[in-house]
Amino acid sequence: MKPVDPLVRKLQPWLARLLSSREVRQLRRHWFSRKEQGGAVLHVFLKLSDPYSYLLAQVLSDLQRRYRVTVRCYLVRQLPAAMFPEPELWQLNAVRDCQSLAALYGLRFEAADAFPASDRVDALEAELIARADAGEDFLGQLPSRLEALWAGHAGTPSGITPAQPLQVREHMSRNEALLTQWGHYGSGMVYFGGEWYWGLDRLGHLEQRLLDEGRNRCPGMQVRYNRQERDFCLLGHADDLSEAARDLPLEMYFSIRSPYSYLGLEKAAQLCHHYGLSLDVRPVLPMVMRGLRVPRSKTLYIFLDAKREAEKAGIPFGFTADPLGAGVECCYQLFDYAREQGRAVDYLLSVARGVYAEGVDISTRSGLRCVVERAGLDWAEARRQLGNTVWTEWAQKNLEDLYQQGFWGVPAFRYGDTRAWGQDRLWLIERAIMQRSRDTTGEVGYQGVSC
């Protein structure tokens, strides 16, 4: 890896703070609002074989009905391969994940196979593009057509002549170019006024913005799509759990260079403290240090999205000093020492808060000493551990275990047989904790939140 210029390293936290500040966000929103012509438009990029697009399509009419916005759909097919380093693992998790989301929101998610057959996808693309080119708004038909596609019995209705393959490809290419031009790389995405919102998981942010801008059609409206975090640490208490539930640890795969890992660590620590569980953190090398490419557009989206998620959870974030390279190595070289002292979680929390909220350069002795001593560790002893290479063995082992669990990246969590990927999936873990407690005490199983 190319070393970072010292001046750039010093300026980086201040630039990150400015870029992610609320003031800059508000200026950007104001600038885009002045550009609006013909009303506010939600630009929605959908891929028919993407399960998150399937779910998102089911709530678009609801958004248009509740807010003064117009929904405009764009079909895409070819997405940058570099954005999905392990596509097969991603797909397997996506189907399971969307089944959980559908149950949480009372949506439909019937999948005859893991993913719809490509010929059926092609047929529905040709139908919808023909409708779009004819000036028809297919938003109202989209949920039922996607339901049929994923159920395995989609066909082209009578009265519509499907678009030809070349026409489909040209249409898709225009949409994919627009997706890139506006700064994103994925499907199941909503673009509104210079910001991106991914699927059901970020509609809460979009709704809050629409409410703040006074775009709600009825007074007194509240955010609807926030059930993932609505009852976090509210389902029970440590005293309510069975011994079997408390004795099972929560395992977390973590990278010090992942903003989502930082948020996930903060939330996992809170969850474990609330329910009296132990937290077993298993660090892995960042993707870039494993030879994988992370495009700039993905890095920027993750950083700005993590800022919104951090604000929602009340977690400090944004004054960030990238630990890539020497910082990561220094952090991991001291992890065994922190674990031997029984302070592994305290240590990683201290390091992560320093990196993502305080602009601490942990590649320097002064920065590293700051976070080490704050975690209750002895700096003189810790310093003697620097330079060891033992960590490379367990970091590789943790990565192999991560893949064996069916994950491709971090943060990822496991509690017993329950596996969840993402800092915004700890609601699944919390429900698994409550379910295990009920199963081991003979009580009625957890039924989930009211939809």
List keywords for this structure.
451 residues; four-stranded mixed sheet; 8 strands; globular; Glutaredoxin; 8% strand; alpha/beta
Could you explain how this protein is built, in words?
The structure is a single chain. This protein is of the alpha/beta class. The chain is 51% helix and 8% strand. The protein folds into 2 domains: 36-225, Glutaredoxin, CATH 3.40.30.10; 230-439, Glutaredoxin, CATH 3.40.30.10. It contains 20 helices and 8 strands. Mean pLDDT is 92; it is low at 444-451.
The order of strands across the largest sheet is: 2-1-3-4
CATH-defined superfamily of the largest domain: Glutaredoxin
Number of discrete domains:
2
**What is the first-to-last residue Cα distance?**
49 Å
Provide the β-strand percentage band: 5-15%
- Class computed from helices, strands and strand pairing: alpha/beta
Q: Outline the biggest β-sheet.
A: 4 strands, mixed
Overall 3D shape: globular
CATH fold descriptor of the largest domain: Glutaredoxin
Based on the coordinates given, report the CATH architecture of the largest domain: 3-Layer(aba) Sandwich
Name the CATH class of the largest domain.
Alpha Beta
Order of helices and strands: HHEHHEHHHHEEHHHEHEHHHHHHHEEH
**Are there runs of 5+ residues with pLDDT below 50, and where?**
444-451
The percentage helix is 40-55%
Number of helices: 20
Give me the count of strands: 8
Mean pLDDT value: 92
What is the radius of gyration computed over CA atoms, rounded to a whole number of angstroms?
A: 23 Å
